[in-house]
């Protein structure tokens, strides 16, 4: 059985849940409470020396880490339905859209960074929120421009089926909403996010639907 | 002709230069001075609404962005020599190692984030350097653990040929050295980095070898 070590509010775990659901794969969940630091416990460091979630233990007993690497693995191992288009230029577009989230927005706003800002740099709550919203705005402006300028955009980030780009987008929109970011300047992002959230694979991956949600 | 819009010290452009060199591809360079903000000029925003480097204009005239997406594109279009192993579990390992750098270290330490820390949060030079070194230490500790614990490691991050993981590692080591980070706790990272830097593909991609180096 496949097991996902995650946390209901982790964006990266959320991505992997969507990918698993889109592929129609069954999996067990083993939640680690990031707020309580369970990801840094010895047992998890043995599993994932990065002290991060998610880790996916495959049905073959192999431990995989890094959400984007896990999604690409799932796509290579279970090709249907595809998370990336067939054409290599289109694949590059989808990966680039995914990476705007995964390499430009999320790394700056995840829990360990916010904790570091408060704990080490001593910033107050207002400054922390401004930091959060700044990187959302920078990244979503870029993403909105790409999605409106490029012909590849359809009901979803690329065409009319969900891809790796949507898998990254939806958890980032969820987080932006949680931090009460103003998303009115990003109508395409909102439209695509709504289309995704109408699908069971995304609904069942949502943080509030997880066993450790509280 | 393929054209790379980059900057000699940009980690992300450095990655793409290594990938192009490993594939033996000729390319023109069009440098944008990030310190002077040239990446935010209208002409570059038309090319890349993210206001970032690198962008790669392919020989077919297609504009690609996001360094990791570009490297995967190059690997799919020009399969030899491969940047990823054939086995899907091994591919996942290489991508995960690459993403420790590309999703956990580099996004926190790139120029626009350092500028934001100083300009918006008003941190002093010492705090900025401490921030830089903190994320290098966090990420390199994780990477060193993975590289020493996992059997896949060889002369390079995975086996005895350079892969996407090495393409990410070397620019990050270069940056860490530039910011005078203490790397003595990471002997495996140092060993692999030295092996990479002995290869012409890496040497010719180094910042100091670029036309805009000063």
Automatic annotation (TrEMBL), chains A, B:
Pfam families recorded for this chain? GST_N_3
Q: Which UniProt keywords apply?
A: Isomerase
What are the GO BP annotations of this UniProt entry? glutathione metabolic process; L-phenylalanine catabolic process
Q: Which domain of life is it from?
A: Bacteria
A single MF term (Gene Ontology): maleylacetoacetate isomerase activity
Keyword Isomerase part of the UniProt annotation: yes
Domain GST C-terminal: residue ranges: 87-214
Q: Which residue ranges does the record assign to the GST N-terminal domain?
A: 1-82
Name a GO CC annotation attached to this entry.
cytoplasm
Q: Which family does it belong to?
A: Belongs to the GST superfamily. Zeta family.
Which NCBIfam families did the record assign? maiA
Tell me the PANTHER family matching this sequence: GLUTATHIONE S-TRANSFERASE YFCF, MALEYLACETOACETATE ISOMERASE
This one is known as: Maleylacetoacetate isomerase
Q: Which organism is it from?
A: Halomonas ventosae
């Amino acid at each position: 059985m496949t097991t996902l070590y995650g946390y209901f509010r982790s964006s990266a775990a959320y991505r992997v849940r969507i990918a698993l659901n889109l592929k129609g794969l069954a999996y067990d969940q083993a939640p680690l409470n990031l707020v309580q630091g369970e990801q840094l416990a010895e047992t998890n460091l043995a599993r994932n020396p990065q002290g991060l979630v998610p880790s996916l233990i495959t049905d073959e007993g192999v431990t995989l880490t890094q959400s984007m690497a896990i999604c690409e693995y799932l796509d290579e191992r279970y090709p249907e339905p595809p998370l990336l288009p067939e054409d290599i230029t289109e694949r590059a577009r989808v990966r680039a859209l995914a990476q705007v989230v995964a390499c430009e927005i999320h790394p700056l706003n995840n829990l360990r960074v916010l904790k570091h800002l408060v704990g080490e740099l001593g910033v107050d709550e207002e400054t922390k929120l401004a930091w959060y919203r700044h990187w959302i705005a920078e990244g979503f402006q870029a993403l909105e421009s790409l999605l409106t300028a490029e012909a590849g955009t359809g009901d979803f980030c690329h065409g009319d089926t969900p891809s790796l780009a949507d898998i990254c987008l939806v958890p980032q929109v969820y987080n932006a909403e949680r931090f009460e970011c103003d998303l009115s300047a990003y109508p395409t992002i909102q439209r695509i996010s709504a289309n995704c959230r109408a699908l069971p694979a995304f609904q069942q991956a949502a943080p509030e639907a997880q066993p450790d949600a509280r």
